[in-house]
């Protein structure tokens, strides 16, 4: 099995940008958000269960999952959120571990926003945290998702604190700089880590 680098960070921290930079260096990336979409694709048994439970309001006209509608329901309702998590998390975990076991490269970047919260750190050889100031997180995430500030604050509150996340980190990429300037900075950090991970993967 490949050496597993768990990449995590809060909402709006820049995890996808950083994962893409590793992909550009030829390394495979397994992204929990993509796997989460795969397990609820149109026509999947899990999507049917979700629609049965929440009603057709969570489906688009194409019969696909309307994530925004579902997010609005569950983030303000603890018991519904728990029901959804109990349904999805085991299926997502199983699919991710299957994909990880099939990787043939020296190392793999495993992107999981809730790596710590869902106790998945045990499956990682090393943990890379993308660190960003909370106010920058809020600004970036609200621009990107066009979500209400309140919804993003709820998502941030559901994630572990910045301090706790950093306590798990073997490596940290700081991503607080403005976009263009920040990109050069993180490209340099990713290149350095890539060399380090190739060495570690050989041990």
From TrEMBL:
Annotated InterPro entries: Depp_CoAkinase, P-loop_NTPase
Assigned EC number: 2.7.1.24
Binding-site residues, ATP: 12-17
Pathway where it operates: Cofactor biosynthesis; coenzyme A biosynthesis; CoA from (R)-pantothenate: step 5/5
Top EC group: transferase
Pfam families, per the entry: CoaE (PF01121)
Domain of life: Bacteria
Keyword Signal part of the UniProt annotation: no
Catalytic reaction(s) noted: 3'-dephospho-CoA + ATP = ADP + CoA + H(+)
CDD domains xrefs: DPCK
Molecular function terms, GO-annotated: dephospho-CoA kinase activity
UniProt entry keywords in alphabetical sequence: ATP-binding, Coenzyme A biosynthesis, Cytoplasm, Kinase, Nucleotide-binding, Transferase
Places the protein is found: Cytoplasm
Job description of the protein: Catalyzes the phosphorylation of the 3'-hydroxyl group of dephosphocoenzyme A to form coenzyme A.
Family: Belongs to the CoaE family.
Protein name, UniProt field: Dephospho-CoA kinase
Organism: Mannheimia cairinae
Underlying gene: coaE
């Amino acid at each position: 099995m490949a050496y597993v680098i768990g990449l995590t960070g809060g909402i709006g921290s820049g995890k996808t940008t950083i994962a893409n930079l590793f992909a550009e260096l030829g390394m495979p990336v397994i992204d929990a958000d993509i796997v989460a979409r795969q397990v609820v694709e149109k026509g999947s048994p899990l999507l049917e269960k979700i629609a049965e439970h929440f009603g057709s309001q969570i489906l688009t006209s194409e019969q696909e999952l309307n994530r925004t509608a579902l997010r609005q329901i569950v983030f303000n309702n603890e018991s519904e959120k728990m029901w959804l998590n109990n349904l999805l998390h085991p299926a997502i975990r199983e699919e991710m571990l299957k994909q990880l076991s099939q990787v043939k490269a020296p190392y793999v970047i495993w992107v999981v926003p809730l790596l710590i919260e869902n106790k998945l750190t045990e499956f990682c050889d090393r943990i890379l945290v993308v660190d960003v100031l909370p106010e920058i997180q809020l600004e970036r995430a609200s621009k990107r998702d066009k979500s209400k500030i309140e919804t993003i604050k709820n998502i941030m509150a559901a994630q572990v604190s910045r301090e706790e996340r950093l306590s798990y980190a073997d490596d940290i990429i700081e991503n607080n700089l403005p976009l263009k300037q920040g990109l050069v900075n993180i490209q340099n950090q990713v290149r350095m880590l890539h060399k380090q991970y190739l060495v570690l993967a050989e041990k």
